[in-house]
Amino acid sequence: MRIGINVAKLREGTPAEYIGRFLFGGLVTVVASLIAGRYGPIIGGLFLAFPGIFAPGLSMTEKHAIERKAQGGADGILFARAEASVEAAGASAGALGLAAFGLTLWKALPTHPLTLVLPLAGAAWLATSLLCWWLRKKI
């Protein structure tokens, strides 16, 4: 599968699905903020890293893939699971990239200016994410 953007798939979702997805993400953010207020920013940051819209988004992907296959008269459960697994793999690669971004900031910010560290951290995120995606394809 090639990495790409398919804007047409945005039309598959209903407004209620998108609202639910973003409400769940907002709720995760509020809970992380409450945890940070109670236990400090380090513990709160761990919870803020939770992918708040990942689970609802993945379920939307599966549901819509099943619906597309059903319109053609086929059982799309296996196809839908495969499509969702590709999205999960991409999210995992992005999460590892985010870890590289955070690690770069954590280690470099105390001794270097933000104007230098931020682009470096962005490059670390991009390189790590692409490397993970490439490794996934090779394995």
Could you explain the architecture of this structure?
The protein is mainly α and 139 residues long. The protein has one domain. The chain is built from 5 helices and no strands. It has helices at residues 15-39, 41-48, 54-71, 77-108, 114-138. α1 runs antiparallel to α2 (41-48), α3 (54-71) runs antiparallel to α4 and α4 runs antiparallel to α5 (114-138). The protein is globular and about 60 Å long. 12% of the residues are buried. The mean pLDDT is 84.
Mean pLDDT: 84
**Number of folding domains?**
1
Following the backbone from N to C, one meets helices and strands in this order, namely HHHHH
Low-confidence stretches: none
Number of strands: 0
Give the amount of beta strand, in percent: under 5%
- Biggest β-sheet description: none
The gross shape turns out to be: globular
In DSSP terms, counting alpha (H) and pi (I) runs of 4 or more, how many helices? Answer: 5
Rounded to the nearest angstrom, the distance between the terminal CA atoms is 14 Å
Concise summary:
This protein is mainly alpha-helical. It is built from five helices and no strands.
Annotate the secondary structure layout.
Layout: H1 15-39, H2 41-48, H3 54-71, H4 77-108, H5 114-138
Helix pairs in contact: 1-2, 3-4, 4-5
Keywords:
139 residues; mainly alpha
